[in-house]
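Onboarding guide, step 5: your first structure request.
Type a short instruction followed by the sequence, for example:

Predict the 3D structure of this protein.
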Amino acid sequence: MEIDPTEVAKVVNRLKRTQGQVGGIARMLEEGRAYEDVITQLAAASRALDRAGFALTACALKRCLSEPGSEESAQMLMVEEVFLSLA
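The system replies with structure tokens like these:
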């Protein structure tokens, strides 16, 4: 199942921001920052990755619902599997 290029661009931007955030976390550790600050940033980065996954899953779900056809059941099962893997 292909993903809408507009949605791909949004997710890629989110991932690039998260990549920068993870680099910042590594610098925080190297600088000896307080563990509370590091944990807070780790949790934020984790949520950002989760949101990227959910955004892709939502795109797939929208596509399944807007383009019903003979493959609908298989696509819905795939979306369900991906969604549950993010939980």
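Each response can be followed by summary notes, for example: The helical segments are 5-30, 35-66, 72-86.
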